[in-house]
Design brief:
mainly beta
């Protein structure tokens, strides 16, 4: 949601600003509303925005170009307490980003309160750079349904609001279904599972173990996978040892991960020597207090 007249232009839908959420930006003008809001796909969402009072609109120009000024250059001046109310928003967990980047530092600062939590934004824009408390406020909330109130007030001479981003926080899924846990594996291993979620930012598949004490990347992508092949892990250069796979998925401003432990060695290589021989049989038998050949 970008404050400003529709004719002044809005950022591209591929631009996620500070909210980590791509989706269609809507210019809502300066009227009292209610004004219909679109969803991530640009279609009507059923949600609407209205204002408790109508404040003057302002524009400013610091010489920046691209998506950034389309968000911050159009603004609504906050001369006193006012409330933006969003109706029709489904119940759920959300992150609400309130952009309040001011044309000058110090003389314009804005208080933003959602769910009783107050944050103050007091900073001038820096091209393509966002910082909480300087360019925007961030509130993570559970919305039970019904009207959602965003209360703003000036914290100095005036306040200012550039726009909002409403990010649904739906837990992403990180799941490895193959290879099997705790089994001997070797060669090229197909890693299968799910790495996906609403508003996917991306996923990474890493391993640690053997000669490595840190995480080593196997694959990275911004394309989701659901119950399918994630990557092929070539273990031919790794020495026989215990290893751990880690799949980490980031979506909807949240990150989850899962791990899978396994052994890189030829099946039957109980002592991880790299070959299967009588020593492996002896090791297995010794676990049962039996003598080997």
């Amino acid at each position: 949601v970008a404050i400003g007249e529709p004719g002044s232009g809005v950022p591209a839908s591929s631009w996620s600003a500070a909210g980590g959420q791509i989706g269609t930006w809507a210019a809502v003008g300066f009227g009292a509303g209610p004004i219909g809001l679109v969803g991530l796909n640009g279609q009507p969402s059923g949600a609407q925005l209205s204002r408790s009072t109508v404040q003057p609109g302002i524009t400013f120009d610091l010489g920046f170009t691209g998506n950034y000024p389309k968000l911050v250059y159009d603004a609504e001046r906050v001369d006193g307490p006012m409330t933006y109310t969003i109706t029709g928003l489904p119940a759920g967990n959300y992150t609400i980003i309130t952009y309040a980047a001011a044309p000058t530092f110090g003389t314009i600062a804005t208080r933003v309160t959602i769910g009783g939590v107050l944050q103050t934004v007091a900073g001038a824009p820096t091209d393509n750079t966002f910082a909480e408390g300087l360019s925007h406020a961030r509130h993570s909330i559970f919305h039970p349904g019904g009207p959602l109130a965003i209360a703003v007030d000036k914290a100095s001479l005036n306040g200012i609001v550039n726009g909002f981003q409403i990010v649904p926080n739906v837990t992403p899924i990180a799941e490895i279904t193959a290879p099997a846990a705790c089994f001997f594996q070797t060669g090229r291993i197909e890693v299968v599972g799910t790495a996906n979620g609403p508003a996917l930012n991306g996923w990474t598949l890493d391993y640690t173990g053997g000669n490595s004490s840190t995480w080593v990347n196997i694959a990275t992508s911004s394309t989701g996978v659901t119950n399918g092949p994630i990557a092929t892990w070539d273990t031919s250069g790794l020495r026989p040892c215990a290893y751990t796979l880690r799949l980490r998925v980031t979506a909807s401003a949240m990150a989850v991960e899962t791990m899978r432990s396994l052994v890189i060695a030829v099946p039957g290589d109980a002592n991880l020597s790299g070959t299967v021989n009588f020593d492996d049989v002896t090791l297995v038998l010794s676990a049962f207090n039996l003598a080997g050949p």
